[in-house]
C-alpha cells in the first residue's frame, strides 16, 4: 500500500488531508495517509499560543500569531470553494474577520471532512531522508511516553508532503547598539499582545505586512508613537497621527535611534518586522527547499513537487496573496500526483515548466502584476484537478480593489464588504469600525 | 592519534581546553582536541547577547544572560586556583563583580593559555552517536560556507566531552489565563533588560536564584512593584519595599493574578523564573543525560563520566554552589581519564561510587548541608588530579557566611568583601553600594 506522510496540520496540511479525504469518499484508494503535527492541536499558526521562543519541550515555538489579529485581506479572497463562509456560519458575515473566526472556519471544514483521524499530534518530525535503494523516504518522528520519556521512530513513506509553513523562523538582523539598548527588542514572530506597548514609543523595522499591521495595532491599543524605518521604500500609506515612516535605521545609541537621513528619535522598544526564513533543518540537504520568500521558488514543479525527487512535495512555500484557496489548489495537485491521476512529468518537462513560470515572474514589477501572476498560477493549478471552481477573476478584482482601499484608508479598509466568489453573497457592513472595535472575539464579531 | 571532541566553549569547555593545554605544555601527548562552539565567540552564557528565542540561523539562542547581572556569590568562591583575580586585574578588586568583569576574567585565562586554537566557532553539533563496531563517537557538525550554504560533516572521536551547560532551555509551565493575559509573559531565559519594566507591576513565578535576582534587579531599575509567587516555600528575605512574596499562582484573569491564598493582584507582565531543562536533543538517546537539576545527577561517575560509556563525559551538569572551580576540577578529571592517567574504572566501581554519592546526597536536607556536600564532592575530585589546590574550607566558610549575609540584607550582601582562597588577599569595599550603582561596566567597576 502506498504510504504518504503529511508534515504539519495547519492550513496547508489540513487542505492536503481534506483533498485526500474527498478522493477517498469518492471511492479512490488513497493508500495510507499519516499527518505528523508538532503541536497538540491543529490549525498551525492560527492555533494561537502565548508562548514565545521555545515551547514546553525546548523546541522552537511554531506560532507567529498575535492577539487581536484581524485578516488583512478580504475573507472572500481565501474562501474554500467547497466550504463557504455562508455554509460555516449559516449567514453572511463581514469581510475582515479576526483570528478566532478564521480559525473556526478552517477547523470547521476539517471537522466536517473528519480528517482528524489522520493526524498524530505532539509528533514533531526530526528527519526526512531518501533511501535510494528502497526508493522510500525515511521519516523520523519524536513522540513522548506518558512518563515523559521521548521516543524516536523511523517509518518509510512513498511520498512526503511538507506543509510546515514558512512564517515560523524569524529573520533577525542586528544593528549597532542593539546590545546596549535599554528596552525590549523582539522579532514580530515573538509579538503577542499590543497591550504591552501601551504608552510606549515604538520603533518598527520593516515595510511589509507585519510592519504595517503591528504599527496599526500598537497604535490602536495605545502606544504613544510608532516610528517605522524602511530600507528600500516607505509603505506610504496615509497613516493616522502617531505613525511615521523614516528611512533605514543606522544605529541605536542608548534609547536613541539614528536613521540614515540624519534624524533621530528616542524609543522604548524595537520590533523587527524583518520577515521569515524558509527553514527546514529536519529535511536532508538534497531534499531541502532553500529559497528567499517570493511568488515562484525555484525547484518546485507547479510550485509543489520537488523537481529533483517529485515524490517529495511542498505546500504553500510561495509568498502569498492567495492563501487557503492556493493551498487547496496545490493540495489537489499534490494528491493527484500521489494518486497517479496526474502523469509523472519527466525531469525535462518539470524544468521547462518551472523555467517558464520563473521567466514570467522575473518580468513582474508591480503589485498589480504580482496579483495577476499569482492569479494565473492558481488558475493553472485549477485546470489540473477537480478542485471545485470559483470566480477567480472576481478574487483578482477584489485584491486590486483592496489595494486601492488600503491606499485610501489604512485604518478604514477593513470596514468594506466584498462579494463571495463562491456564493455571490456580500458580507454585511459591521456596526462598529475595525479601528474602534477592540474586542476580537468570535462572539463579539458575530454580533457586530 | 586519540581524538577528543569538546562541545561548547563556555566556562566548562574553556576549563577543559585549559586542562588539556596545561598537560600539553608539561610534555604530555594529548592527542587531537577539537572544540565545537555554536556561537561566534567564546564565553558561553557570559558572552551576552541581546537576542532571544531563535538566533540569526533559526537555532535556539544559547544565552540566558541579562544586562546588569552581577555575581550573586563572592568571586572568591569561583576563583581559578591557577589564575587568580589578583593576577588578572593586577590588584585586588571587590568581591561581587558584574558580568563584564567575570567575562573578562574567564576569557583572560583562556587567552593566557592560548586555547582559542582548539575552537571551531559557528559550528553547532547536530548529532552525537556511538559506533559500537568502530568504538568511536560519530559527531555531526554544521558549518556555513561564505555563500551562506550550510554543510554537515561527521567526524569520529575517541572521546566526547559535553560542555554545553544546562541553563539554556527554559522550563516553561502554563497557567490558566496565560492565553488571555494582556501583557508580556516571558521566561527568565528571555529576560534581557530590566529597563523594559520601569514603572510596571511585575509578577515573578519562582523561588530560586533567577526569581531572587530578577526581582531585585527589576526594582533597582524602576519597576513599580514586584510580586513573587512561590509554590513550595517563600525565599523569605527581608525584601525592600516594592517586593512581596505570595503563595502560588492559581490563574490569571485579564490583568489580575489570583493566588492560592485567595489574594489577587493586578500585574503588567509575568516573568517565569521556573528553571531550565537538561536538554541535549543532539545526543543519541542511549548517550543522553536525562536528569532533574540536582547536586548529583545519576549516571555520571565522579559527576563526569557517563557510566554506560565512560569515554563520553559531561561537565557542569550539577546544580551549582561551586562553579568555575568545580568545572576546573571536573575538567582535570575528564582530561586524566582521557589521557589514561586515571585508571578506567570498571562498571561495578562506577556504579558503587555513584550509588555512594547519591546515598549521601539523599540525606542532605538543608542549604548548609548542600554546601558541605558539594564541597566534599569538589574535594574528592581534587584528590584525583594535579589541579592546583586552594583553600576549599575557606570557600565553604565563605558560602556559609554569604548565606547569612543574604538573610541579613538581600540588597546589601554584595557590598561585603571576602578573602581569596588562593592568595589570601581581601577585595576592597566598593565606594558605592551595589544597590545604588546602576552602571555595571568593567570600566566603572574598576573605578569604584
Note the total helix count of chain A: 9
What structural class is derived from the secondary structure elements of chain A? Answer: alpha/beta
Distance between the termini of chain A: 51 Å
CATH class of the largest domain in chain A: Alpha Beta
Shape of chain A: globular
Could you walk me through the main structural features you see in this protein, from its secondary elements to its overall organization?
Two copies of one chain form a homodimer. Chain A has 448 residues and is an alpha/beta fold. Chain A folds into two domains: 3-168 and 276-395, FAD/NAD(P)-binding domain (3-Layer(bba) Sandwich), CATH 3.50.50; 178-272, FAD/NAD(P)-binding domain, CATH 3.50.50.60. Helix content of chain A is 26%, strand content 19%. Chain A is built from nine helices and 20 strands. Chain A has helices at 11-25, 85-89, 99-112, 209-220, 324-338, 347-362, 367-384, 392-408, 442-447, and strands at 3-7, 32-36, 119-120, 125-131, 136-144, 150-157, 159-162, 169-170, 184-187, 201-205, 225-230, 243-247, 249-253, 256-259, 264-266, 269-272, 276-277, 300-301, 305-306, 312-314. In chain A, the strands form six sheets. A five-stranded parallel β-sheet of chain A has the order 3-2-1-7-20, with helices on one face. A five-stranded parallel β-sheet of chain A has the order 9-16-10-11-12, with helices on one face. The longest helix of chain A has 18 residues, at 367-384. The radius of gyration of chain A is 22 Å and the shape is globular. Chain A binds chain B through residues 48-56, 58, 60-61, 67, 149-150, 152, 169-170, 172-174, 178-179, 181-187, 189-190, 192-193, 195-196, 268-269, 277, 279, 281, 285, 290, and chain B through 48-56, 58, 60-61, 67, 149-150, 152, 169-170, 172-174, 178-179, 181-187, 189-190, 192-193, 195-196, 269, 277, 279, 281, 285, 290. Chains A, B: InterPro entries: FAD/NAD-bd_sf, Flavin_mOase, Flavin_mOase-like, FMO-like. Chains A, B: This is Trimethylamine monooxygenase.
Amino acid at each position: 500500500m502506498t504510504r504518504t506522510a503529511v508534515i504539519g496540520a495547519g492550513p496547508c496540511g489540513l487542505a492536503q488531508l481534506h483533498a485526500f479525504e474527498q478522493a477517498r469518499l469518492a471511492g479512490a484508494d488513497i493508500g495510507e495517509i499519516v499527518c505528523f503535527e508538532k503541536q497538540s492541536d491543529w490549525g498551525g499558526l492560527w492555533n494561537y499560543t502565548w508562548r514565545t521562543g521555545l515551547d514546553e519541550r525546548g523546541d522552537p515555538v511554531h506560532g507567529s500569531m498575535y492577539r487581536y489579529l484581524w485578516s488583512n485581506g478580504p475573507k472572500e479572497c481565501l474562501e474554500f470553494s467547497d466550504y463557504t463562509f455562508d455554509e460555516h456560519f449559516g449567514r453572511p458575515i463581514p469581510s475582515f474577520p479576526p483570528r478566532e473566526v478564521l480559525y473556526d472556519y478552517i477547523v470547521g471544514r476539517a471537522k466536517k471532512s473528519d480528517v482528524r483521524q489522520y493526524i498524530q499530534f505532539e509528533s514533531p518530525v526530526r528527519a526526512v531522508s531518501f533511501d535510494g535503494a528502497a526508493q522510500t523516504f525515511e521519516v523520523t518522528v519524536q513522540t513522548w511516553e506518558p512518563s515523559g520519556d521521548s521516543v524516536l521512530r523511523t517509518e518509510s513513506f512513498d511520498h512526503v508532503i511538507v506543509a510546515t509553513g514558512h512564517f515560523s523562523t524569524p529573520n533577525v538582523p542586528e544593528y549597532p547598539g542593539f546590545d546596549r539598548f535599554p528596552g525590549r527588542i523582539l522579532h514580530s514572530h515573538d509579538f503577542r499582545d499590543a497591550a504591552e506597548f501601551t504608552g510606549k514609543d515604538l520603533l518598527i523595522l520593516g515595510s511589509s505586512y507585519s510592519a504595517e499591521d503591528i504599527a496599526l495595532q500598537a497604535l490602536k491599543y495605545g502606544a504613544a508613537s510608532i516610528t517605522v524605518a524602511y530600507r528600500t521604500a516607505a509603505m506610504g500609506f496615509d497613516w493616522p497621527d502617531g505613525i511615521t515612516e523614516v528611512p533605514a535605521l543606522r544605529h541605536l545609541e542608548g534609547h536613541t535611534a539614528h536613521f540614515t537621513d540624519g534624524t533621530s528619535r528616542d524609543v522604548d522598544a524595537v520590533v523587527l518586522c524583518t520577515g521569515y526564513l524558509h527553514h527546514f533543518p529536519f529535511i536532508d540537504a538534497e531534499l531541502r527547499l532553500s529559497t528567499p520568500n517570493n511568488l515562484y521558488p525555484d525547484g518546485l514543479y507547479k510550485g509543489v513537487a520537488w523537481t529533483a525527487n517529485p515524490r517529495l512535495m511542498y505546500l504553500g512555500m510561495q509568498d502569498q496573496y492567495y492563501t487557503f484557496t492556493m493551498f487547496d489548489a496545490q493540495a489537489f495537485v499534490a494528491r493527484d500526483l500521489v494518486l497517479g491521476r496526474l502523469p509523472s512529468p519527466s525531469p525535462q518537462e518539470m524544468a521547462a515548466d518551472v523555467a517558464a513560470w520563473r521567466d514570467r515572474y522575473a518580468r513582474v514589477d508591480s503589485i498589480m502584476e504580482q496579483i495577476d501572476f499569482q492569479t494565473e498560477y492558481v488558475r493553472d493549478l485549477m485546470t489540473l484537478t477537480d478542485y471545485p471552481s470559483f470566480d477567480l477573476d472576481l478574487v483578482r478584482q477584489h485584491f486590486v480593489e483592496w489595494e486601492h482601499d488600503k491606499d485610501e484608508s489604512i485604518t478604514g479598509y477593513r470596514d468594506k464588504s466584498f462579494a463571495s466568489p463562491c456564493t455571490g453573497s456580500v458580507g454585511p457592513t459591521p456596526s462598529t469600525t475595525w479601528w474602534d472595535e477592540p474586542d476580537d472575539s468570535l462572539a463579539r464579531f458575530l454580533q457586530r
